[in-house]
Amino acid sequence: MELLLLVAGHFFGAYTFYFFHRHIFHGSLGKYPLLRRWKAIHTRHHQRPDDPGTFFFPWWANLLIWTLAAGLFIVVPAFALGLASFFAYYTYRHRSAHVGADTRSGRHHRSHHYGNPMANFSGAYPFIDRAHGT
Fold first, then answer.
1. C-alpha span between 127 and 121 (Å, rounded)
2. Which one of 8, 23, 74, 111 is least enclosed by Cβ atoms within 10 Å?
3. Distances (CA, A) of 53 to 31, 42, 57, 86
4. Per-residue pLDDT of the chain (134 residues; tens, 9 = 90+)
């Protein structure tokens, strides 16, 4: 059961990121006042994809993510560890893609920046984009 919760937490993080990236950072949900700042930060990342200062979430977004994971850890430790594992994995994959890693996920992410910014939203798992036709 614990392993299932760990995997569920990891993929919950992956799909949450996909949702934010597709529907807030690049989509119509980013027009709402509460979410405009998140979209603007992501827009700067697209304007300067080679700038390491734009690779990662700002401190306040990291604080929000890790506070959520810590709160979940109290209730469902395995799920929270899975969620944290996704964001650690995503951070590694995202940085690797931006420094030129010649991997499937690196090429997938770079095509989002240098090919079609309205595709390849997953950031870590290309199969998520295939499943959603993006």
1. 11
2. 74
3. 24, 12, 10, 21
4. 899 999 999 999 999 999 999 999 999 999 999 889 889 989 998 898 888 877 777 888 888 878 888 898 999 999 999 998 998 999 889 888 888 888 888 888 899 989 899 999 998 899 999 999 99
